[in-house]
Amino acid sequence: MCESLGAFSLVTSVTYLLTKNISTALILGAVSSATAPAATVIVLKENKAKGSLTSTLLGGTLSKSPSVVRKNIGFGLLSQVGVAVGLAIVVSKEFAGYSLGSLVITILLATTIITEIVGPIATKTAIIKAKEANV
Q1: Phi, psi of 133 (to 5 degrees)
Q2: 93, 86, 85: which is closest to 115 by C-alpha?
Q3: Residue 19 CB: number of other CB atoms within 10 A?
Q4: pTM value?
Q5: SS3 of the chain: helix, strand, coil, percent, to 5
Q6: Measured between alpha carbons, how far is residue 128 from residues 25, 57, 63, 84, 119 in Å?
Q7: What is the pLDDT, as a whole number, of residue 66?
Q8: Exposure class string for 65-80: b at 16+ Cβ within 10 A, else e
Q9: Is 78 helix (H, G, I), strand (E, B) or coil?
């Protein structure tokens, strides 16, 4: 609860200071509180949700992979951000003419660019740490 409230307060405040638009600040603050890590973990546990990372971790456990592989396997998923680009395009079309559309597409594309830079490096590091590379 505190993490979600903190995320909401921080994102809302910073967004308002940058945009001077309270509605945009409140929307992004609400999104940030909904996606705060602790809240996300609770929702995953309550709904027994499955996704790429949980399936990968489960597969590593069921196949009795070494712990070093299980610990690093999630880093290989960082470079898969195609959904974010699709979401950015949908939001930009839905909110065309509003500052929210351009703000959301800017944030999503910036996150995508950062993830696409960090993703391959993290994947390489994970492969080396898991001792799966012949380096």
Answers
A1: -105, 145
A2: 85
A3: 15
A4: 0.41
A5: 80, 0, 20
A6: 41, 18, 20, 27, 14
A7: 82
A8: beeebbebbbbbbbbe
A9: coil
State the Cα–Cα distance between residues 128 and 54, nearest whole angstrom. Answer: 22
> Which residues does the chain have with pLDDT short of 50?
none
Q: How far is CA 84 from the centre of its chain?
A: 9
CA distance 53 to 56: 5
**Closest to 30 measured CA to CA, from 67, 59, 4:** 4
How many other β-carbons are positioned within 10 Å of the β-carbon of residue 14? 14
Separation CA 11–CA 16 (nearest Å): 8
- Residue type at 14? V
Q: Which token pair is 89?
A: 């395009």
Q: Which two tokens stand for residue 84?
A: 């974010």
Q: Could you tell me the two tokens for 28?
A: 């992004």
- Amino acid identity of residue 101, one-letter, is G
Residue that has been written with the tokens 């790429």 in this structure: 52
